[in-house]
Specification:
Oligomer: heterodimer
Largest sheet of chain B: 6 strands, mixed
Strand content of chain A: under 5%
Number of strands of chain A: 0
CATH class of the largest domain in chain A: Mainly Alpha
CATH superfamily of the largest domain in chain A: MetI-like
Largest sheet of chain A: none
Largest interface: A-B, 20 and 22 residues
CATH topology of the largest domain in chain A: MetI-like fold
Order of helices and strands of chain B: EEEHEEHHHEHEHEEH
Number of domains of chain B: 2
CATH architecture of the largest domain in chain A: Orthogonal Bundle
Distance between the termini of chain A: 47 Å
CATH superfamily of the largest domain in chain B: P-loop containing nucleotide triphosphate hydrolases
Strand content of chain B: 15-25%
Shape of chain A: flat
Structural class of chain A: mainly alpha
Shape of chain B: globular
Number of domains of chain A: 2
Helix content of chain A: over 70%
Number of helices of chain A: 12
Order of helices and strands of chain A: HHHHHHHHHHHH
CATH topology of the largest domain in chain B: Rossmann fold
CATH class of the largest domain in chain B: Alpha Beta
Number of strands of chain B: 9
Chain lengths: ~280, ~260
């Protein structure tokens, strides 16, 4: 019996796959890593094209050149050090305050009635408003950027923690009560680990918005730091400098998310199935 | 001395809507369990079996009546509970899950936890997470957890109903073995009459109005095979009681499971 043009496959044999160079290249480009690299290349290419077309848009080459000069001049690390100290102080406050407020709202209806609307208002106020208000209240001081970060990020952590507490599986709570597990241990060993997912989600949002907040706050009310340095070049009409510092600012948060937040999240949630973790 | 004494226990759930009636889930139940007994509670769906267990374990409050659970050692009684689903903390290892229900987590508790894990054939899983175990294995961990607290009363709420027939049979056999060794007082809720006949020394049949309809004492030796004529006859007799309950209710109540 004729089998036509189709290749005959013996039972149990795997079909032969084309493993030539073009196929391997296509597989590499279509992989996750390939897609990510492609997006970076497209971005840089697009940026270069825009920079070539418009005088007021510094291209990647000019930005990199400026950064090299700026690093040579010194001051990049000092500016980041100042900003990072303020930023992490604000994040620490947001984490503690957000978890406490979220736990209270999640566990007690009265606390929820008291705090929920205030928290929603906090969510709605953009970072720029906090930056301006804290500048009015504290003037040129470290308090303004720290508080801007804290006030921006706290509502996100709190709302997510509240949802986490309310979403704690009822069957696990009933199991705990049936075995007589104390409230204190239930919160520590059941509720807190369960809500860590929500804490991380809220913290991630809060960190990104808080990072924006510290830039804005230093723009308006600081004489040092990344935000101040960015404004310095903007006021000097030096677009290369302005864009270079924005680039540094954005690059930091992307790298921080990849190298710090993601690994921590993976480690904390290693109890999930390996399929979910990949 | 009775381990469990229930007097005039009643539970009424408030009406669900404006025109609805309150639901009398349990109606004036009197019950006594002596030590080392394996007692099954069977009945059609909605007869209040699970509500009864919830009240016994303190998860729900009764509307009326009293419950006394006596501990051999004096002091507050300890409960073990096995649910329909394993209810393990996913972020804790198997050993940590067993220790979760213990206040004292010293060496003796760990030794006992390992002993019960070994009894259910899972001594090697202590460092694993629940997601790495099958449903049947997780349920075995739940059984080990319940036994590990050395309970005065072990409550089991249809623990094998969510498992396939083969796994359920295997776990039933393991439960029988563990009970033979430990002789804990067990109150076992099931809708599977054959399961109740194979495991229990006493079967209590509840009716849909939340009352005790009938009681059966079983004196047959273990293991009890479904093919044994005496076992089959007892199953048929209990199923006959179900038919009487359904006839009295006068509507299509859910039929109990008949397979063993």
């Amino acid at each position: 019996m004729s089998t036509g043009a189709a290749a005959r496959i013996e039972p149990g044999a795997r079909p032969r796959r084309d493993t030539g160079l073009p196929r391997r290249l296509l597989d590499a480009v279509l992989s996750n890593t390939g897609a990510r690299i492609t997006s970076y290349l497209v971005f840089v290419l697009g940026w270069q094209i825009l920079g070539g077309l418009y005088e007021r848009v510094p291209g990647p080459v000019e930005v990199v050149q400026f950064l090299a000069d700026e690093i040579g001049r010194g001051g990049v690390w000092d500016a980041f050090q100042v900003t990072l100290e303020r930023f992490f102080a604000g994040v620490a406050i947001a984490f503690v305050a957000g978890v406490v407020i979220g736990l209270l709202m999640g566990m007690w209806p009265l606390a929820r009635a008291l705090l929920k609307d205030t928290t929603m208002v906090g969510l709605a106020i953009p970072a720029i408003i906090w930056a301006l208000l804290t500048a009015l209240w504290f003037g040129f001081s470290w308090k303004a950027p720290v508080l801007t970060v804290a006030l921006t990020a706290t509502p996100f952590v709190a709302i997510n923690v509240t949802q986490g507490v309310q979403g704690t599986p009822r069957d696990l709570i009933r199991m705990s009560k049936a075995f007589g597990v104390s409230t204190h241990r239930r919160v520590r060993e059941l509720v807190l680990p369960f809500i860590m997912d929500y804490v991380f989600t809220g913290l991630r949002f809060g960190i990104i918005l808080g990072w924006n907040g510290v830039l804005l706050s230093e723009w308006f009310a600081s004489t040092e730091g990344v935000g101040w340095r960015t404004r310095y070049w903007y006021d000097a009409n030096n677009f290369d400098g302005f864009v270079a510092w924005i680039f540094l600012f954005v690059a930091f948060i992307v790298v921080f998310d990849r190298l710090v937040l993601s690994p921590i999240q993976r480690r904390v949630f290693r109890w999930r199935t390996t399929v979910a973790m990949r | 001395m009775a381990v469990l004494k229930v007097e005039n226990l009643t539970k009424v759930f408030p009406a669900a809507g404006k025109d609805a009636e309150p639901t009398r889930a349990i109606d004036r139940i009197d019950l006594e369990l002596s030590g080392h007994a394996f007692v099954s509670l069977v009945g059609p769906s909605g007869c209040g079996k699970s509500t009864f267990l919830n009240i016994l374990s303190g998860v729900e409050e009764p509307t009326d009546g009293s419950i006394t659970v006596t501990s051999d050692e004096g002091g507050p009684a300890r409960f073990g509970y096995v649910f329909q689903d394993p209810r393990l903390l996913p972020w804790r290892t198997i050993m940590q899950n067993i220790l979760y229900v213990h206040d004292d987590r010293g060496e003796e508790t760990k030794r006992r936890a390992l002993e019960y894990l070994d009894m259910v054939g899972l001594a090697h899983t202590g460092g694993m997470y629940p997601a790495q175990l099958s449903g049947g294995m997780q349920q075995r961990v739940g059984i080990a957890r319940a036994f590990s607290v050395d309970p005065d009363l072990l409550l089991m709420d249809e623990p094998f109903s969510h498992l396939d027939a083969i796994t359920a049979r295997s776990l039933r056999d393991q439960l029988q073995e563990i009970w033979n060794r430990t002789r804990k007082t067990v109150l076992f809720v099931t809708h599977d009459v054959m399961e109740a006949v194979q495991l229990s020394g006493k079967i209590i049949v509840m009716s849909r109005d939340g009352r005790i309809h009938a009681e059966f004492t079983i004196d047959l030796p273990h293991p009890r095979s479904a093919a044994d004529p005496e076992v089959a006859a007892l199953q048929a007799e209990i199923l006959g009681e179900f038919e009487k309950i359904q006839a009295a209710a006068g509507n299509g109540a859910a039929a109990p499971a008949q397979a063993g």
